[in-house]
């Protein structure tokens, strides 16, 4: 575990790629894959001499705690989430690092490169993980991230890698966006759209295409009402400006699945419960936990079980393809032709009525009502 020569990031990438390939027949090919980047706090409250230990800000408690940030890259296609690779991050600022210094920073060794990565900015490391995952065979079209990583520079960097970024914007006064020849912050742009008397939609408030002032990159912004908070809103952004607002919201909602991984890994796989003091051992512990989760997800997906409601509808749609009205009428005429002739007119009328009722019940409501009206008029 403490061997600094093992490339745990590449190993976890290769395992995730093999698991995805092995589960291809159980996954819906219609849903494109997306990479999710997020971080979680790995607290070490009682540690004192752990290598590169740092005072890390906990967003839930709104205060600093001793520990690390477990930056994680996951893959999701709408049905399944698999962690791909991870980096154990310390702090950029030397004054925040309270543990023992790094054993080595020799960039000729894997151990030195790993420790240097731990002290780089988190968005830069996120881009490194994405690049490494794609180099090891992971295929994805979108990258999803929260406001901690969202910036025009991040969107531009993903665009250079031929990836579509979808993230939540911060309402900061430091970043401006050009809209109709004028510069706006996110907050002032929302106020302008609201004062322009645009009617909010049912599933979102406003949507517009802007240009980031720093990266000179077109972005589509979608303002969404914040649930349970009156007069508050969230702002989603993407580099693919021809995506509909509904599609942007639906894609971004997949990001939440990585939180389920963090919860399961901490509760059942002891992600944040280790006494390892060596930094290489911490990286190994994170990677082994991640690979364990991948193997459990692989086994669970392969187990035969009751299909979900979504799977049932998908199977019914496959088994019973939609046919046009002309084909349906032809089938009805064939059934009427094959009716057995009986001596009782009442029985013949009853059989014909039963077939017609079955035919009408299988049509859409509008078509059935139109045919019924035509029959009554005639």
Automatic annotation (TrEMBL):
InterPro entries tied to this protein: IS701-like, IS701-like_DDE_dom, RNaseH-like_sf
Residue ranges annotated for the Transposase IS701-like DDE domain, each copy included: 7-186
Domain of life where this protein originates: Bacteria
Protein name from the UniProt record: Transposase IS701-like DDE domain-containing protein
């Amino acid at each position: 575990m403490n061997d600094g020569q093992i490339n745990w990031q590449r190993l976890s990438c290769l395992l995730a790629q093999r698991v995805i390939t092995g589960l291809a027949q159980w996954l819906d090919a219609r849903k494109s894959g997306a990479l999710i980047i997020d971080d979680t706090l790995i607290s070490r409250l009682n540690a004192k001499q752990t290598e590169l230990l740092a005072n890390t800000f906990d967003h839930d408690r709104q205060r600093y705690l001793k520990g690390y940030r477990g930056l994680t890259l996951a893959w999701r296609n709408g049905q399944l989430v698999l962690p791909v690779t991870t980096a154990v991050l310390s702090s950029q600022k030397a004054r925040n690092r309270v543990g023992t210094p790094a054993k080595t920073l020799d960039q000729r060794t894997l151990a030195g490169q790993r420790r240097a990565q731990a002290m780089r900015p988190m968005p830069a490391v996120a881009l490194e993980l994405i690049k490494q995952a794609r180099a090891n065979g992971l295929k994805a079209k979108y990258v999803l991230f929260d406001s901690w990583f969202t910036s025009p520079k991040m969107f531009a960097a993903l665009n250079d890698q031929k990836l579509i970024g979808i993230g939540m914007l911060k309402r900061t006064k430091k970043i401006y966006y050009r809209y109709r020849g004028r510069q706006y912050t996110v907050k002032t742009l929302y106020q302008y759209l609201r004062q322009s008397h645009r009617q909010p939609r049912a599933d979102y408030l406003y949507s517009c295409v802007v240009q980031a002032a720093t990266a000179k990159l077109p972005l589509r912004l979608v303002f969404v009402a914040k649930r349970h908070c009156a007069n508050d809103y969230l702002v989603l952004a993407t580099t693919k400006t021809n995506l509909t607002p509904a599609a942007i919201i639906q894609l971004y909602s997949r990001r939440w699945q990585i939180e389920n991984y963090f919860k399961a890994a901490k509760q059942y796989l002891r992600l944040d419960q280790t006494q390892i003091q060596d930094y290489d051992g911490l990286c190994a512990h994170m990677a082994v936990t991640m690979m364990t989760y991948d193997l459990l997800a692989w086994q669970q997906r392969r187990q035969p079980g009751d299909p979900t409601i979504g799977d049932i509808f998908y199977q019914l749609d496959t088994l019973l393809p939609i046919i046009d009205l002309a084909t349906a009428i032809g089938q009805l005429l064939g059934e009427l032709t094959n009716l057995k002739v009986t001596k009782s007119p009442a029985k013949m009328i009853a059989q014909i009525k039963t077939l017609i009722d079955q035919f009408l019940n299988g049509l859409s409501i509008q078509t059935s009502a139109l045919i019924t009206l035509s029959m009554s008029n005639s």
